[in-house]
Amino acid sequence: MKCRKCGGSAALELRRHNAAFCAPHFLEFFRKQVAEAIHKHRMFSRDEPILVAVSGGKDSLALWDVLIEDGYQTAGLYLDLGIFEYSQESKAKCVAFAAARGQTLHIERVVDAVGAPIPDVQRATRRPTCSACGLSKRYLMNRTALEHSYPVVATGHNLDDEAATLFGSVLHWQMDALPRQSPALPSTHSKLVRRVKPLYQLSELETAGYSFLRGINYIVEECPFSKGATSLAHKELLNRLEEASPGAKHNFLFGFLDNARVAFERLEDVSLTECSRCGQVTTGEICAFCKLADQVKSRALTPSGPPAAG
Amino acid sequence: MKCRKCGGSAALELRRHNAAFCAPHFLEFFRKQVAEAIHKHRMFSRDEPILVAVSGGKDSLALWDVLIEDGYQTAGLYLDLGIFEYSQESKAKCVAFAAARGQTLHIERVVDAVGAPIPDVQRATRRPTCSACGLSKRYLMNRTALEHSYPVVATGHNLDDEAATLFGSVLHWQMDALPRQSPALPSTHSKLVRRVKPLYQLSELETAGYSFLRGINYIVEECPFSKGATSLAHKELLNRLEEASPGAKHNFLFGFLDNARVAFERLEDVSLTECSRCGQVTTGEICAFCKLADQVKSRALTPSGPPAAG
After folding, report:
1. Residues forming beta bridges with residue A184, ordered by sequence position
2. C-alpha–C-alpha distance, residues A159 and A206, integer Å
3. What ipTM was estimated for this complex?
4. How many angstroms separate the CA of residue B49 from the nearest CA in chain A?
């Protein structure tokens, strides 16, 4: 295989683009895709400081790397979930990444905010795996951005993540979730910062390729709680469709964003107020995060070990 | 396993209903599901003659059987596609079924209407497999119903068929097809008869079970052109989801029908006119069926054999 741009030996084949690239031209392609996403959805300008949520994995560190290289004003945010060695290792990757590039890294600990680390939070609530964690992450990203005056939070969600989320929403026709699926969620309240996903046009394979070629030292292990997660089953299923018909994932996600999403946008706006407990934005009296923290506090928790294997 | 109704030995387990039934109570369950679908969507009344489109397979013959047993006024319509032995055998099943029950069976031949049997039609057009056939079937069902004054055509589409069609439409976000996916399509023009799918609440396994228990002699072979069809791949994929989570197909289809379909209904109505060639309903000047027949006529066709195996 030869590079589409220079005819040199190709390092990566992108079947859905019917193209292959050498290392330098793949990096160029990757950066262009990110720049296009930022421009198309007016995600942020060069004057705005951007808070990049990093997990220590390939996607979020690739995102941070691209933004730094492109001269954006960025800082990282690492959320310490307290998930045993997994959290320790992923934090170390983020700390080293930031130090090597002279960037600020904010670190917030779930245990401080909610009263217990994620493994204990999950045992204290009846929420499905990943649900309490996702809620805590969205809450802390927004709170940290507000506290430090970042107008926008960028996350490393890629094409595969977004397609899998959409797939799950469609299987159950979640009429609340469907209109919220977007590469750029605007601020609809003064206490709600913008959320953007500049990697949504790039596949998991492509972010892995970028991180590898850029020599980024990221954590390869997945979260130990993700084992058996529905989103992983959906990703596998979408991979089968992609295998049979390259571009299937892309068409599914982009067809939704370009044509169908508008059908789900609510006619009436949801009215947002401030949580009477913490002051963050909610649709009710007390926000979901404060309710979660209440649940955790109300249960006497014994310390727990890592989840059993298998 | 025991029958949910009588505690006797169960003949069939229905995982998505978390139930099992003996033979008589399964037949009762099946008939109730059909009656519920007819009632819920006001598909037809007992005063109306119903044209039941039959292929010779388990679904359409099960449908015809239920309607006859329930005392509806019915006649069958067999569309002879001219697909070698497959068509000959399936026609024989329909003729025998109708004769044994003293019912009228209309037979229409695609070769008479379009100028060539389906295998030659497919070679004469660039349409994907099953597309020209589906177009011809919908056209001839409607024309036959109009000619013989049936106000409604009933087809044997089951839950698996409908879920697979929806899945295909969603993967490509076909904004034309999505609002038309319904168990009951009303007549929107004096030359367009109602189309209804009374089996849409019942799975493929359930229609097979009904046909078996009722001793219906149906054709087991699938159409030789269906091999490798996308709809079959989608059915397989949905079966995986169903395996992992019983009820997944049901929730996907019913969630759409109950909550999401309305989002896709067009704000403006499509304007329907009559084809200047054949007088049937179309959105343009000449209908898609007449265009198909033109294509077939304009190509000198050599006779063809059955499709190659594998």
Report:
1. A196
2. 10
3. 0.84
4. 36
